Amino acid sequence: KKERKRSSTERELGKVASSLPPPPDSRLYIRRKKNHPLVMASKDADPSLGYLTRKDTEVKLPRPTRVKNKTPAPIQITAEQILREARERQEAEIRPPKQKITDPTELADYRLRKRKEFEDVIRRVRWNVSVWIKYAQWEESQKDFNRARSVWERALEVDYRNHTLWLKYAEVEMKNKFINHARNVWDRAVTLLPRVDQLWYKYIHMEEMLGNVAGARQIFERWMSWMPDQQGWLSYIKFELRYNEVDRARAIYERFVQCHPKVGAWIRYAKFEMKNGEIVRARNVYERAVEKLADEEDAEQLFVAFAEFEERCKETERARCIYKFALDHIPKGRAEDLYRKFVAFEKQYGDKEGIEDAIVGKRRFQYEDEVRKNPLNYDAWFDYIKLEESVCNKGRIREVYERAIANVPPAEEKRYWQRYIYLWINYALYEELDAGDMERTRDVYRECLKLIPHEKFSFAKIWLLAAQFEIRQLNLKGARQILGNAIGKAPKDKIFKKYIEIELQLGNIDRCRKLYEKYLEWAPENCYAWSKYAELERSLSETERARAIFELAITQPALDMPELLWKAYIDFEISEGEYERTRGLYERLLDRTKHLKVWISYAKFEASAMENDGDLDVPEDGVPEHDHEAKKGCVQRARRVFERAINYYRTSAPELKEERAMLLEEWLNMESGFGELGDVSVVQSKLPKKLKKRKQITSEDGGVSGYEEYIDYVFPEENQATNLKILEAAYKWKKQKLSSDDE
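Predicted structure:
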């Protein structure tokens, strides 16, 4: 009835509230008023900012105060003064008053209150171990050990896997000398948590402190049945050694190396035997370890320890054998420390050969490491091969060469093969010169020539070395076959030159001609080949053949160095005394090019043509008339060549002023060299004037970046034309002035 009456009253109050107008700050009012600031702000609200606007979330920092006077204050305050003042002004700490308990009733009340507090906290945070520990320790402080044990047991029911609880519980029992209770706690702990080593250590320590050695040993045996880590076994061994039980310790070591067959365990076992003076037993331990662990990753450590043991026993030969056995069986990448120890051992106990062998072994290890990291590092292979060649072990040298040449470059591009090919060359030279095995040398050259992709690129050096090797073996047919294959598969200039040189030394002229023909078929633009072919024919006094070769050469549409070919042809005709043919050649050359050097060479030829005439009888009283006339004719012909050249530069190439000036200087020098027949004034009237001028330097963006000086040449006809232009301009100006005066 009361609830029904209350609900009806609430309904009536709701009707009255709905009839009243909403207050200005209510949500309904805000919903009705569209222009209310909260309604407007909701449009800009961001859901990621909790429906606040960006303006609401802005951090409004205080306006920074402007310091007008920045001069230092007369009284300076240090940080120490500020800290001292803060300490002095600090209020005293409020501490609860100390309570003194005077009678048992107050003590009972105090205990009841504290227990209630602890129980309330435990109800709230039952899983918090620290609360349980505080509760139990408080009960212990009240000397109520039964209640304390009860708290510890309740805590263990909550989390028995927490070994801290067991440790604290047992320590409390031990501290208060409840030995049987503590033993009971430790026993339960190691039964429930056998993998927590600390529990076993504490348990054993307690028994040992109590003098219960047999009990401690029994606990150790229980622990060892769980096969703990190495430290547990070593603790057991130390325990036995503390009581001088060497045989028991040896038996534990045997079980230890069976449980943990690692290098460190065996080394500890051997050192234990060595410490007790059992050298034979120690050596036996090392030998058993080598049999079982020779292929392990850390076998290097075992071999080093074994060798050092033999070294301490003055068994140097045994130690050396162990080092060598280890170096042969351990991969090079894992034997760095072993090599270092071996080198130090040989320096101490070995002779000169042993020391060198050890050093070579160390360097060999370094090179092996390098070529393992990057097999295509051919420089490392060269150094490695050089090292092996210094040792003079044929088997190892050939093995390293074979391993090196097996690393073929990955791409068929010549730049990758340029270093690699020298491995084959060095291999062949080693087999021929050092090993003296000619068949292997021939096989090396043959395999190398098979490997090179001659369709894309080739190496003339390999072909020539193979051919020269066959010649040294007096196998001329084999050499010709190799060079013929080279010309057929990969013709090169070096191959043609060397083949022609070999045949020329043998006096086979017909073969030389055939080779030159092949050479020119392959490279018709090669001026060197044409010149050498003509030179060969000339040396054989075949003038017409040489001339025909030169004629064929200059008619080729493209030549790599035509100036050398023309010069050779002209020198050939001059040496033959054919001046008319030489002039014809110069004229044909001028039809092709009007280069400055061609004009100068032509003029010099005309000037010196007289000197090559036949010998004349010179009378005693003077120069023969024929000689004088011939010299004058040479001078005239040279002048005509120079005049033609100057005329060409003046009319057809006026922009080549520097070449024209150089030509005039050459002409002047020649006229002065003619002596009485020369006329220097002819040239001096044509010499230009040198003028220094400046011109703008335009930058990349089109602007003017500065000026530079250059030498300009002004020739006499240009100077005269300039003077005429000045006179013409002056005449026009005078005419304009007279007409203006008349007006």
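Summary: Residues 23-42, 611-623 have pLDDT under 50 and may be disordered.
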